[in-house]
Amino acid sequence: MGLLDLKNALKKIDDSIKKKADPPQVPPKRAELKQSRQQQPFSTGKSNERSTSFNIDDIFDDSIADGEPPVIFKRTKHRVVPQGCACGDEDDAIHTNNFYNNLTLEDQTFPVWTLPYSLWFSKDSGQDVGLAFNHTEASQRVYGPEADADPAQFYFNPPKIKSLVISGEGFRDYRTSVTLEGHNKLSVVAKVVWEEDKYISVPLAHGMGFVTATYNNIKPVIASQVGIQEFSRVENVGSLSKYKIKLFNQVVWSVYIDGDVILQLEDPNHIKGDKVTNATIQFARGESLAYDDTAGTYPVGVNLLGNVHGEKAQYSFEYKMQGCSRSGSGLVWCLPHHQEALVSTLQNKYSQLELDSPTKGVMRAYVTNVLTMEEQLPLGINWDPWASFSTDTPSYSPIVKDLIKAAAIEEIKQDVVGMANIDSMYTSGKILDKFAYIAYVCKFILEDDELTARILPRVKEAVELFANNRQKYPLVYDTTWKGLISSADPAADFGNSNYNDHHFHYGYHIHAIALVAKIDSQWLTSNNNLVLNYANTLLRDTANPKKDKYFPQFRSFDWFHGHSFAHGIFASGDGKDEESSSEDYHFVYGMKLYAKVVGNDKMESRANLMLAIMRRAMNMYMLYSDDNKIQPKNFIRNKVAGISFENKIDFATYFGRGTIADEWIHGIHMLPITPISSYIRQEQFVREEWDQKLAKIIDRIPDGWKGILMLNLALFNPKKAWNWFARNDWDDRLIDNGMSRTWSLAYIAGIGGAD
């Protein structure tokens, strides 16, 4: 994929124009308020490995590694410079894959979604300059390409409707800019700057109850392109002045002012203050006593907290509130997967306020400064084959072992190093993972030391090629955004050098390293900690538990959305996106296994918590059982999201739909199949997807996607899957280049398919 192709792909998706790609032979990669069906109780069943539980009060208060990244990674300045940000060596790392990143790119005018509101820098010619914001309802969604289709291929929310614009007298596009400070995972502070001592500060935080603007030596202007039908002052709320705005679209906004300024309607598009002020003005959609009770407070930052006690973990968003309110508390919005998991002490904090989110159902507002959720952890899912319906410890008959061994003997004949030493961190990672799994099967399932000795050294050699940073495109440390990126052109390797897909790419490497280290525990620390340092640096880049001088906190995983975003530093009109839920949780599963081999209890606990959150969130927002109550009814029959944006969901991929039908769209949410797959992809969903979408096309699929779909079949029908993988007329062309028949047979037999 070239740079032009990548940009065109992004534009096509943003414009909702889909075109089929030439079919590849093996899968490429790319650049009601509550579920009526509650999350099913989780049980890990039996395991031949002890399920480790911990009691840890703060799972985010540690470092994966300290100090600079290893010198083996050459230092470089990125060709894309973040707009409005200080990016020197001593400055905070700037987030590349989270909600506010659009404000750092190009002309800074692409929207960001704090949820439930969206905001953007508005400097359109002839219009008011400032920070515009809006909220869209589910009734405004646009479905296409056929509006009445069921299921629709995509839906999106109309972007950049200027309900209101936070502006000031004298603001002009040629002299007004936006800067960003306080770069945290869940928050950032935007400043609309007119002159050095004249600016508007607008803190942005996930779930913030109000849009809050603090004016500094500015005469306020509040503009609206929708138009103001009614404007009135209502009685004060304590020391706060309160106003009501009704727009011509009949949407009402409540406005609260802490300060000595009076607002007046000047014309149907402008409300102006009577003086230069340092007042704080807050906006909220609708009218509610909860707004009255919480106005005056606003978050200037958010801390991520977490603790683990036995089989359960809690995670919290601690909002650092400024100001004071009548209730002594602020207001926070949360998504459906938060609502299901909220601790009981927060249930009576529900304000009765509800607003639609763009793609994740109905949000609820709570009168609180801290949101705390609790999840049950998947402690018993570790190395062994596991499925939700399997209650026995994996066992293998001599006949089954013979078949697995025969497959292994054939597959270890391949050139591991040559296959892995290519120009893609993603594809090479899949190859490393494939052969690491074969080595694992040889050692622990076949218990064959001779076969293990034949494959293991070559897998180690292939991994060490990357650990030594001697692959075709070595990794470099970017001192601008602060991260580990490919030295390849941005158009190569699916945009790795522009921070696309790091958790996908590096997840395969980390999982492979964990498998090899499980076989040889001394390997990680040999050669002066060569592989250990490599894996740790990959994890610092993608899942740093707390920010440091060299990496941001959790580049990929969004703790508010409940899944990661793969989209790096490319501006997007519909926000960040992710198309592979399975490679997302595969990364976290690899982190969990790596944590086990290095004995990092906090990392293992973080991984378990992330997996538990993903299980809940992905089954609401990405994987659709028939009884899904979150997504629109005319979209659920797609069964999977395709590409999930912040503002849109598109049943598509960046590389096409499929050779036969839509198998690539389904398959990208399956690969790779590991013991964690059945935990996320629940049996009911897998059965429905197979019966409704895949069974009628499976026999006609001519390439490696067929193997992916057939291994996924084992998640509800392992016997049928076994018969396909165990047959005599085996054809290697029908499995993905990152799959092995060895692991497929071992996994299916381990969950009961060979009985």
TrEMBL record:
Keywords: Carbohydrate metabolism, Cell wall biogenesis/degradation, Glycosidase, Hydrolase, Polysaccharide degradation. This is glucan endo-1,3-beta-D-glucosidase. Residues 79-387 form the Glycosyl hydrolase family 81 N-terminal domain. It comes from Scheffersomyces stipitis (strain ATCC 58785 / CBS 6054 / NBRC 10063 / NRRL Y-11545). Transmembrane segments: none annotated. Residues 36-53 have a biased composition (Polar residues). It catalyses: Hydrolysis of (1->3)-beta-D-glucosidic linkages in (1->3)-beta-D-glucans. Residues 15-53 are annotated as: Disordered. One of its GO terms (biological process) is polysaccharide catabolic process.
